[in-house]
TrEMBL record:
Superkingdom: Eukaryota
Protein known as: Elongation of very long chain fatty acids protein
Tagged with keyword Transferase: yes
Main location: membrane
Catalysis performed (reactions): a very-long-chain acyl-CoA + malonyl-CoA + H(+) = a very-long-chain 3-oxoacyl-CoA + CO2 + CoA
InterPro entries named in the record: ELO_fam
Gene designation: 101898711
Taxonomic lineage from the root: Eukaryota, Metazoa, Ecdysozoa, Arthropoda, Hexapoda
Membrane topology: Multi-pass membrane protein
Length: 358
């Protein structure tokens, strides 16, 4: 324990000596340990304590809370974007090729330093994204990517505010807040209910925008490895490698979410047409995630959309039940008929093509 305290004291002295004196006494800036403690608490809360606490409870709806929260995040992100932009990047004062940190007390410079701290603070407010997932029992949304992304960011930004508030690294904050304006706008409309779903066709492009963001950050950061610039090379690597890591994490998520899913549905459909009485073990997660609702689903169109509701029966018949309680079935004569499917919005049914079984 004494050895640990010794190293902590050495680290604190290093922070005091090499840190920016302008931010030394600002909240959470004297030492990295409070930020680290909050990040670790967040991970424990959303991965262990929260799900355990919600295990035997009904999910909270939180619709109005989500609308207000996401609207507030849009406004907050837009304000930080404006502050970072007006303090340098959008006024022509900052150079996209090389921008050293300005360690003076010029009002414009101090404005950028304050914007950096508020950007750091915004990383804590984003923890609420995951906490709302926990309260709503949306376990599938609490992915490794999600937790790593949110859990790492406050600690990463802390070093920038402590040592280099301003300059080249703030390009990251400019792009990131711009993306968050769009992202939280999407979340806000999504929280408003099913009537807004038709306006949210661009969901997959959010992930693409995230990846483009990280590519731009990589290029902007790593260019300083090839040119002379009075900016710490350690922070060039720190920012650039973060962008590389998040790019590959988001790329993997994109492939799983938007490319792998369609292949899964097609494979499940083909299997169901051959052996409708039994679902493969590896396809059970599709049922658990709500992409299918029955033993083997009836139609290709509904299955690929993830909304099939009904099942092909082993005895040559099929049934489906609509949301208003009515049902329909066909039977015998060597036919498997997914004749009626539920429409989850208004309970209407759709006549589908019969499939004859040899």
């Amino acid at each position: 324990m004494a050895l640990v305290m010794k190293y902590i004291n050495i680290m604190n002295r290093y922070m005091d000596t090499h840190g920016d004196p302008r931010t030394k006494d600002w909240p959470m800036m004297s030492s990295p340990f409070p930020t680290l403690a909050v990040c670790l608490t967040y991970v424990y809360l959303v991965k262990v304590l929260g799900p355990r606490w919600m295990e035997n409870r009904k999910p909270f709806r939180l619709q109005n809370t989500l609308i207000i929260y996401n609207a507030a995040q849009v406004i907050f992100s837009a304000w930080i974007f404006y502050e970072i932009g007006i303090s340098g990047w959008l006024t022509g004062h900052y150079s996209f090729r090389c921008q050293p940190v300005e360690y003076n007390n010029n009002p414009r410079t101090i404005r950028m330093v304050h914007a950096c701290w508020w950007y750091y603070f915004s990383k804590f407010t984003e923890f609420m994204d995951t906490i709302f997932f926990v309260l709503r029992k949306k376990e599938s949304q609490i992915t490794t990517l999600h937790v790593i992304h949110h859990g790492c960011m406050p600690m990463s930004v802390w070093f920038g505010v402590k040592f280099t508030p301003g300059g080249h690294s703030t390009f990251f904050g400019l792009l990131n807040t711009f993306v968050h304006i769009i992202m939280y706008t999407y979340y806000m409309f999504s929280a408003m209910g099913p009537q807004f779903q038709k306006y949210l066709w661009w969901k997959k492009y959010l992930t693409t925008l995230q990846m483009v963001q990280f590519i731009l950050i990589m290029v902007h950061a790593f260019q300083l490895l090839f040119i002379e610039c009075n900016y710490p090379k350690a922070f060039v690597w720190w920012i650039g490698m973060h962008a590389v890591m998040f790019f590959f994490l988001f790329n993997e998520f994109y492939k799983q979410a938007y490319k792998g899913r369609k292949s899964q549905y097609k494979n499940l459909l083909m299997f169901c047409l051959q052996r409708p009485e039994k679902l493969r073990k590896e396809d059970e997660p599709l049922l658990a995630n709500g992409h299918a609702n029955g033993d083997c689903q009836t139609t290709e169109k509904k299955l690929l959309n993830g909304h099939a509701n009904g099942k092909l029966m082993a005895n040559g018949s099929s049934s489906a039940k609509s949301s208003n309680g009515y049902s329909s079935s066909s039977n015998s004569n060597g036919y498997k008929n997914g004749a009626v499917l539920a429409n989850g919005v208004n309970g209407h049914t759709t006549e589908l093509t019969q499939r004859k079984v040899k």
